[in-house]
Model the fold of this input.
Amino acid sequence: MEIFAERTQLALDLVGVFFFAVTGALLAARKGFDVVASALLAGMTGLGGGVIRDLIIGVRPAALEHPVYLAPVVLAAGVVYLYYPHVPRFRRTLLLFDAAGLGLFCVTGTEKALAAGVPAVSAALLGVTSAVGGGLLRDVVAREVPSLFRYDDIYALPAMTGAAATAVLWRLDALSVWTGVTASVVTFALRALAVRYGWRAPLAYRRQAPDG
Done:
């Protein structure tokens, strides 16, 4: 049974698609791509994570089931086309929109997996996949170092926190629109604070103190 009402799920998804699509269009503008490439990169960023999630679950991707998912992609490309010259700080703007998309998709992705009968832990992992998949595709296609793999940028950990919180709320029978939005806001705040204060995850190895 659906945890969120179908219209609520769709509305949250569309907002998340818009936030992520803006980051794709912003990156395309910075790279000097044309408007067609901007729309394609925006679509890849906004829809990529959800398509990967749905294919793993074994359902028809929502982006193909509902053409309305293309609307926020087109809107994002149009907004960036008109207003990019007026964006004073590219990186900060991109990171804020990316954090907003991350916060929404880690929750809606986990919820959709739970509604499809996926166990809670696996559903949380799929929620993380929904949240980081589009950004990963964006950076790889645009030949950027993916935020997911940057040592100086905490990207996946906020998404893991939001997805895990969503799964726990579901297990406690406390997952609703309001608690889901709260988990999304907390994820956004963690990501924004990590960017603001330069929080980092530990490296893959333990640094040794120099001798002497």
Notes: The two ends are 63 Å apart (CA to CA).
